[in-house]
Amino acid sequence: xxGEFESILTKLQGKLGKQTVRRASTINRPxxxxxxxxxxxFNEFNRRNPKADGGSVNGSEQAAFxxxxxxxMDDGYDFGEAVREAMRQGYQDGGIxxxxxxxxxxxxxxxxxxxxxxxxxxxxxxxxxxxxGMYRKxxxxxxxxxxxRKTDPKRIQYRKEYVVPEETLIKxxxxxxxxxxADPKKYLARNRKYVTRPDVALKRxxxxxxxxxxGGQKEKDLARLKKVIASKNVSGYLQNxxxxxxxxxxxxxxxxxxxxxxxxGGPNNSVVAVQEGNKTYHAVGxxxxxxxxxxxxxxPITKHPTFKKRFEFVKQQKAFANTKIPxxxxxxxxxxxxxxxxxxxxxxxxxxxxxxxxxxxxxTDYKKGQVALRTANRxxxxxxxxxxxxxxxxxxxxxxxxxxxVRDFYKGRYIGAPKINPNKQFDDLKKYVDKSFKLGKLKxxxxxxxxxxxxxxxxxxxxxxILYPTTLADTxxxxxxxxxxxxxxxxxxxxxxxxxxxxxxxxxxSMAKLYAKYGKDVVDDAMQKNSINLDDLTKPGSTSDRRRxxxxxxxxxxxxxxxxxxxxxxxxxxxxxxxxxxxxxxVRGASKVLGxxxxxxxxxxxxxxxxxxxxxAEILAMPLLMEGRVGELQDMMKLTPxxxxxxxxxxxxxxxxxxxxxxxxxxxxxxxxxxxxxTKDYIKKSRKLEEALRRDDRSKPKQRFxxxxxxxxxxxxx
Length: 718
Fold this sequence. Notes:
mainly alpha; 59% helix; two-stranded antiparallel ribbon; single chain; 33 helices
């Protein structure tokens, strides 16, 4: 009790004397020990700076401050002096305590002084905010804020609706032009580093795909590339599979390989061979014979040391593409094309997705290659660009290449996936397609085939048309084909024969091209005005002249004369050229009626053809009106068998021949590489050149000489 304690204290003081026994609160406390003083100082610092070291809450700023004080005390500082020196060096008021970050800031801002403020400069100094932003970026203080900001609905909506003002764009362009003008190399290096960042590269590739496939860029690029290829004047013989290695050599030479040199020759002065060192390898044609214009003493490309390996890869590639998935009519090539197109987000490409990819690049080494999927090949280019511009490390690049199953050659060594035998790679691709089939990833493609199967039978050709309707004409053709199949039972037995079915389908293709060219409404309107039925134009008895006549009426309106007897209306529409042609046909037709009396007239036309440079066979066929067919046969004999097959099928599609049986012949090796436009161009140029040479030769004056009088002949032509 308080009263009892007071009475006891009074009695003790009475016996011992006053101030002998006192309360503890009245006694002066002793000086704390040194360890206690340090603890108090640390606690006071922490209370004053709860967000030291940029707001860290894991105690790192306390540990850093304590470590700095202890370090200074080891150097001879008194405790108080060590605390003051640590604060002066930037630890006061939650200063920057990360030595790595502090070093980077001081490298960029040498005037940094931690005694002025946490960020080394006065708050009014513009450098203060720069250091502050740099510190937050390096320390990761922005990361949580960025993640929250990216998912903010208001900000997402704002970014969608935001339109950059034109003034801002003008200022930005002017600023970039000034930067480029000041230092072009630095400006381009900075841009390359930015565009090769993996995240930026993916966005750019997606935008480029959308622009290419859906923005009209594809047609522009194809037209431009067609002109580029024509300007290079590459021989049509390179479409032959036997010349696949020569094509790689030509690509390497065009890209600047100093060991390779192109050799031109032949009637069109096109590329027919490549010189490698002291040896020259020429292209081969049918039966691997040298092509016209091959240099003397040159070696067939089939004798090249690398030919066998490269040709074997092409055979494996085709065998994989043409093998059917067990239990289906779909090939591995078409299925893999679907899977790769789905992965890339592009339409079906109608190409083998298992490509031959040069490991070191075709310019560095055209001989060594690997099997690479289409998407893996594109990803490899992106990874290599990021590595070259130091956006990723070598270890990251190696890991990324292994993931997509390809390898690369970087600074004298291979990185990425190990070397694998092509046979095993193609087997692995089959397993990949089979697994995708079991998992149901190919369901969309089979649904399209099944839907088309309700209309007509499914075969290799119809599957191609179902999966790859690339043009508007194909769409119209499929519509007509669907109606044709629906009414197939009502056709006559004659029209059901395969030959007449093919003829009908060719005529339907011609009409589909008219629809695509002029528009369905325009063509239907022209047929209605001229009382023409679509069935009349597509039935087997219809000729191509009727469709051409319809096209003329669409383009130029009805003829000036209602009666077109003897082709007069056509002649008036076509002008002087048609009149001249009609006159020739009329006179030549009359010569058939005159019989023997028309021989001089026929000889006149034959002599005119001779002056024009026509061949002897064409001239002799003129009395039978067969010179056109003879000329066409001569042109065909200049082509290789595979080129002839491709040319014939193109002519069938254009409805200009009656080669129905060509559909029943098997595909020749290399037909998928045939460029029919290049073949037609070659035939046209070759015929013009030959006719010009014959015309010049026949126009030269004849040399004459006198024979001895004993023969009875005075003179004659040589």
